[in-house]
Amino acid sequence: MGILADLCYERVISYMSEDIWYLNMKLHTFEAPSGNKSVLWNFHKGILLALTLILLTIIPPLSTNKNLPSSLPNIWKNTTSLKIVELEKQCDLFRGSWVPKSEQPYYTNDTCDMMFEYQNCLKFGRTDREFLKWRWKPDECELPLFDSAQFLEIVKGKSLAFVGDSVARNHMQSLLCLLSNGSHPEDVSLKYNLTYDFKRWFFADYNFTVARFWSPFLVKSKDADQNGFSSNSLMNLYLDEADQSWTSAIESFDYVVFSAGQWFFRPQVYYENGRIIGCFNCQKSNVTQLMNYYGYGKVFQTAFRTIMSLKGYKGVTLMRTFSPSHFENGEWNKGGNCARTRPFTKEETKRESYVFELHKAQVEEFKAAEKEGMKRGLQFRLLDTTEAMLMRPDGHPNHYSPPRKENVADCVHWCLPGPIDTWNEFLFSILKTVKQWRIP
């Protein structure tokens, strides 16, 4: 029986129970002549018997659900305390912990041919499988399993874009692998003359397109190092100018997922209104020193304002929050690695201040955009993955990837399959709540 039907039965039971109590009190306090007490008592018993019989006819339908016991106290416990909460308050999917699971991974490196080699950890020698045996459990509910057929039905005839860096690509390839259980897409990038950093996949059975836009800063950026571009060279960021690589093609998409992260640890010079307003780790004595979360918040502000300014854009905008790295025993370029094989518990998680500040900066901008979007009839959705991924130091490729020029561990990206598949379980749950209409 559905939740609303159950609640209707509960409300009837509640009202009738109150009526019985009220009638009982009235009959006991009513001062009738002593000669009429037996008549009144018989009348009282008759009313109680009739109401009891009515209650008994109502209770059985409630107990037809195999998960609900037939006793009245348990019905109250299961329906009133849980179902009313479920109806009135949506569960926070993003607060929880990792628990052991019995299910096998949704796919393997043998069944999915669309994963990037550098995240194909099993192919490149990872022997432990413990990192695949955990599932995210929200504190107050269950996270639904990913259903490729249902997901494809939701997005039928639509398009979804991932805008961001290589972790955004990581996210996209996880989704492609998950969906390949229901339909195998075609790489149609060449039809659009797209380079490696800009890909499109098409699910012909569902007329559904998945695209990737390479934009690690989301805004206009330029190399600024006299020695040329390198893994830690200086970048100029124009915080109030969105990157045209995505703005020029995003207007027609139905869903857009913005994300950014690790590139904001590079040295940066910040520009606004065409002039330098500060920098992060730029080693320039005559420039105001700012923290990187200043620029991080600003680029999301610009991205959201830009997409809302596109006259033809009527899609749903999602923001995935910061994805933390897990280097131990040294920095990323100084021997750091990530060799753990189990998740952290909540108590073990190191809540680094920089993670909190970056997360805070982007969520504040998201909330402001969400409020403004409501005025314009545009939907915004938060994909808050930070807490869950802080607990997964075991989910990175580490050294299980193709050989690199430098023997640097990868503790930024995520193994496929792996904990990153949870991001698409989140996405699946979110899309089920999105209003399925477009603004005229």
From TrEMBL:
Subcellular location: Membrane
A GO molecular-function annotation: O-acetyltransferase activity
Membrane topology note: Single-pass membrane protein
Entry GO CC: Golgi apparatus; membrane
Trichome birefringence-like N-terminal domain: residues covered: 89-142
Keywords: Membrane, Signal-anchor, Transmembrane, Transmembrane helix
Family annotation (InterPro entries): TBL, TBL_C, TBL_N
Major location (coarse): membrane
Domain Trichome birefringence-like C-terminal: 143-429
One Pfam family linked to the record: PMR5N
Residue runs in coiled coils: none
Family label: Belongs to the PC-esterase family. TBL subfamily.
Protein name (Swiss-Prot/TrEMBL): Protein trichome birefringence-like 19 isoform X1
Gene name as annotated: LOC111489175
